[in-house]
Amino acid sequence: MSKPILYLLVCYCMLAGIVLCPPSVQGSIADREDNQLSGTTLNIEKAINFGKAMGWNTDGKYEQRFVQHGLRSSLLEVHNEDYAVDFDESTGQIRRVSNNRFYRSKHQLRVAIDKNTANKKAIGYLQAAGIPLDNIELYDSRSAQYSQDSYQWYVRFRRVYDGYPYYFSGILVILNPEDASLIGFGCNLSALKPLSTDVKVDKAAAVECARTYMAEMGYDISVPTFAELLIVQPDDYWEYIGTGDIAEPQDIAQLAWVLRFNAPWDVTEVWVDAENGNVLGGSRSKSMPVKGSISSPFASTAQVECMPQVGRPLAAKIVKGDLCKAVVSQISNLKRTDAAKCNFSARIKVDCGSRSYTYGYSPANHLLVLLEKSYKGKAYKAKSAFKTTAEIEQLLSLCAGA
Amino acid sequence: MLPILSIRKNWLSRLLAMASLSLIVCQSPAIAVDWSKALAITCGTGNPIRTMTISPFAVDNEVQIYSAALTDQDRYYSNGKYTYVGDSFCAMGCYSWNVLHSDMTSSGIWKDGISIGGSAWPSVYWTPTEVSNDLTIWFTANDIAEMQPGDTGTRDDPARTWTKAIRTGAMFINNLSGNVAGSNISGTGLSVMANIDNMHYSVNNGVSVSLGTSDLATGTSHVYAYDHAATGYTTVATDANGDWPAGGTTQQKICFDSTHLLSDGTTGTLRIKVAPSGSTEYYSIPISDITIYNKAYVLGNDLSTSVGADAASLVGVYARDMKHNSNCTISDYKSFILSNIPTYTVFYMYSHGSWNLAEYPNETVLWDCYGGPGDWNITDHAIPSSLIATAVGNKSSSQPAYNFVHIDSCYSAGYDGVQHTDMASAFGITSSSTNRAFLGFIGTSLDTLDNYNWVAEVWSSLQAGQTINQAVNDANTLIGSNYVVEKVGQASIIGDPSTTLHKVYK
Question: What is the pTM of this model?
Answer without folding.
Answer: 0.80
